[in-house]
Structure formats: structure tokens, C-alpha cells
């Protein structure tokens, strides 16, 4: 759906509250079609971000896997390599 939303599950260290908030913000921006809400819609926009962030945190805390946690640096290096090949 949105390129800026990254998987947050099964990483060592686990996803931070800031990462979850950023993903929720990107989701709300995509769904609403607004990068920044009008003054009239700011409260609704921020409430949606907080609600989605809470749901995402609850989801991440309840998911289980038998796979070992992924290394953030390794995943980031692979993403940089894909981007370099794509845009080279």
C-alpha cells in the first residue's frame, strides 16, 4: 500500500514506539489523502494516528513466530542494495 510503511514484526531489538507511530502516521496520510490535515481536521487526524498506533502495538505484542528475530542492519543493507540496483 505505502512504500514508507516497513514491516515491524520479529526484529531484534523490537520496534520502538516512534517507529510504530511513524507507520501509523503514514497509514493515516494514505487513507485520508492528506499529508497534513487542515486545522479543522487536526484532532481527528491525530486521534486516528494514536488509535492505529495502539492497535499496531497490540498486534505486534500478540504475534508469535518460530523464526529467529531478523537483524535490522542486515535488512537495511538488503533494502539499500535493492534500491541501488533499482535506481542505478
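Sequence proposed for the structure above (88 residues):
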Amino acid at each position: 500500500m505505502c512504500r514508507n510503511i516497513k514491516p515491524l514484526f520479529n526484529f531484534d531489538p523490537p520496534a520502538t514506539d516512534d517507529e510504530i507511530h511513524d507507520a501509523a502516521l503514514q497509514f493515516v496520510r494514505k487513507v485520508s489523502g492528506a499529508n497534513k490535515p487542515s486545522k479543522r481536521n487536526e484532532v481527528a487526524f491525530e486521534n486516528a494516528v494514536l488509535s492505529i498506533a495502539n492497535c499496531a502495538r497490540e498486534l505486534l505484542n500478540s504475534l508469535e513466530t518460530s523464526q529467529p528475530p531478523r537483524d535490522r542492519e542486515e535488512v537495511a543493507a538488503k533494502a539499500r542494495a535493492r534500491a541501488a540496483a533499482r535506481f542505478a
